[in-house]
Amino acid sequence: MNPTATPVHVAIIMDGNGRWARQRMMPRQAGHRAGVRAARAVVEACARRGISHLSLFAFSSENWRRPQREVGALMRLFLEALEREVDELHGNGVRLRFIGDRSSLSAELQARMAAAEERTRDNARLVLVVALAYGGRWDIAQAARALADDVAAGELAPDQVDEAHLAQRLALAGMPDPDLLIRTGGEHRISNFLLWNLAYSECWFTDCLWPDFGEAELDAALARFAAVERRFGLTSEQLVAEEGEDAC
Ligand code: IPE
Ligand code: IPE
Ligand code: MG
């Protein structure tokens, strides 16, 4: 148990916008707009708590199969949110990064994403990763393809392909793996989020619908995280012995 542990990297599957809207007899789109407001608040709350990396799942590879009207509305919302929020994020020391299959997004959205990344690239308070048109399987497949290209070009031998090389080609290359995964909306599944990087993340599932997620829910997840023993395959006794060594 480590009561002071704050995760370095928190990942969130922001689910439940549609149900939140339905409960209020509103269109799903209103739920997505409320979801953007909740996302804005959680970025600031994480930064204030000393969390240095936050990854938000905004749109999955599979979400393309939703009704065209909803997909179109979501894409417009992403464009608007980028236009509206980047100044403030930049002012608050947030570095923006996007992961996902950019080629599937409109040229306008791609251009704004690239501009936001460029503008905020030197910020160091919090790295905000937004997963847009992202799928964990897409990520692993594109990493495998990049390694195959390296092998074909003679820059890498097949027997050099290992976990470290593959990790270097994933969308989150160079970033720490998420310590804590939060999923709102009541489902207990990963829905093709960061399949590789979540291997040893602590998972926190809550029935809270994403637009209702706030500081109280975040703190409940963080408290649970601080109380849990992360063993990474070792035994409790080994961890206690290691702590003793570290203290020496
Ligand atoms: C999450 O909320 C947002 C996206 C997947 C884009 P949902 O739209 O999935 O909301 P529910 O699960 O239908 O309530
Ligand atoms: C996961 O939510 C994707 C995002 C939050 C962007 P979904 O609503 O798409 O997940 P499923 O379909 O319930 O698994
Ligand atoms: Mg959902």
Which superfamily, in CATH terms, is the homologous superfamily? Answer: Decaprenyl diphosphate synthase-like
Look up the CATH topology: Undecaprenyl pyrophosphate synthetase
Helix content: 40-55%
Strand elements, count? 6
Described by its quaternary structure, the protein is single chain
Uncertain runs: none
Q: Decide which structural class fits the backbone.
A: alpha/beta
Q: Bound small molecules, which ones?
A: 3-methylbut-3-enyl trihydrogen diphosphate, magnesium ion
What is the CATH C-level name?
Alpha Beta
Largest sheet: 6 strands, parallel
The helix tally amounts to 8
Name of the CATH architecture: 3-Layer(aba) Sandwich
Strand order of the largest sheet: 3-4-2-1-5-6
Count of domains: 1
Q: Can you walk me through this structure?
A:
The chain is an alpha/beta fold and 248 residues long. The protein has a single domain (9-247), classed as 3-Layer(aba) Sandwich (Undecaprenyl pyrophosphate synthetase), CATH 3.40.1180.10. A 6-stranded parallel β-sheet has the order 3-4-2-1-5-6, with helices on both faces. The model has no long low-confidence stretch (mean pLDDT 96). The protein has helices at 17-23, 28-48, 68-91, 107-119, 136-152, 163-169, 215-227, 236-247, and strands at residues 9-13, 53-60, 94-99, 126-134, 180-183, 202-205. The two termini are 19 Å apart. Helix 4 (107-119) links the parallel strand 3 and strand 4 (126-134). One 3-methylbut-3-enyl trihydrogen diphosphate binds next to helix 1.
